[in-house]
Amino acid sequence: MKKDTKETRQHILDTGYKLIVSKGFSSVGLAEILQSAGVPKGSFYYYFKSKEQFGEEIIRSYFKEYLVALEDIFQPRESSAYNRLMGYWQRWIETQSDECVDQKCLVVKLSAEVADLSEPMRLALLDGSSLVVERIAKCISEGIDDGSIAKINASITAELLYNMWLGATLMSKLQRKAGGLHQAMQTTTSILTSGTVV
Predict the structure, then answer these.
(1) Which among 19, 82, 92, 163 has the fewest CB atoms less than 10 Å away?
(2) pTM, 2 dp
(3) Environment class of residue 68 by beta-carbon count within 10 Å: exposed (0-12), middle (13-18) or buried (19+)?
(4) Cα dihedral sign for 48, 116, 24, 85?
């Protein structure tokens, strides 16, 4: 595998992400990552001081890509901010199904597992999640301005919705069905259109 330094590092991160989002951080050993990536142990330690630092970098890389995708979804176009937000939540439902492994939410997968295991990884998850909530709040504010969203506190609502969707995703994993996600969609619709929970 002949790649330049940047490509090799990203290749290791991409490979690790797929393994970790499927199995969890603790369940994936360094040997499995190296074998799947097709790189020697020395290459791993050239880029990462430890598995923990590797995990932290996977989280930061995940959020970097996620926020670029989020910016594209929320980019003002002909549709209202409300429609852009609802499109985001619909995509959330679609990507959190059991069949969709590559796009699973890393926040859902790792938060409970690494919160007590690694402070740097916990902070990376928290920082990334906070940026997502900020972007959701911005879109809510745009919706209030264009009249497509009820007059609500954008920051508080964004945090509430993000927390609700994370919780609904966890429950859907436990129940092995998407009922909680569809319930979250109904509640989101109610909050954004009327400012109340039905």
Answers:
(1) 163
(2) 0.89
(3) exposed
(4) negative
What are the phi and psi torsion angles at 163 (to 5°)? -60, -40
Q: How far apart are CA 172 and CA 170, in angstroms?
A: 5
Q: Which residues lie closer than 8 Å to 143 by C-beta, 6 or more apart?
A: 80, 81, 82, 85, 149, 192
CA distance 144 to 193: 10
Phi–psi pair at 55, nearest 5 degrees: -60, -40
Token digits for 61?
Answer: 């890389």
What are the pLDDT digits (tens) for 70-94?
999 999 888 999 999 999 999 999 8
DSSP string, 153-187: -HHHHHHHHHHHHHHHHHHHHHHTSSHHHHHHHHH
Q: What is the pLDDT of residues 91-135, one digit of tens each?
A: 999 888 654 445 567 888 888 888 888 999 999 999 999 999 999
Any idea which residue has 């740097």 for tokens? 120
Domains (range + CATH), the chain: 1-48 (1.10.10.60), 60-194 (1.10.357.10)
Helices (H), ranges, the chain: 5-23, 30-37, 41-47, 51-74, 81-95, 106-114, 119-146, 154-175, 179-194
